[in-house]
Amino acid sequence: xxxxxxxxxxxxxxxxxxxxxxxxxxxxxxxxxxxxxxxxxxxxxxxxxxxxxxxxxxxxxxxxxxxxxxxxxxxxxxxxxxxxxxxxxxxxxxxxxxxxxxxxxxxxxxxxxxxxxx
Length: 118
Description:
Layout: H1 4-46, H2 50-70, H3 77-92, H4 101-117
């Protein structure tokens, strides 16, 4: 049978191990918080939902059509492009950044290509 001293020693070891685990957990909480704040939150904020993307694509197509009417002079492609990019940027990014200018350029070129194919 185990004597009382051995039981007491085992209890002390268990308490020390629990303290160590508690300290490790306390150290991990800020690290996990930093990862969530630094990586996960910006990632979620930059994701555009399918409905938003459909709406943006529709407005890019309309803006390209409007630019074709507004800037009908030859060699006015740069003015048309800047008009569409600025219009979509102001429309969707006025409160917070939803879509980047590079993403707008890609949608603009896709809309322009689609219009030329029709």
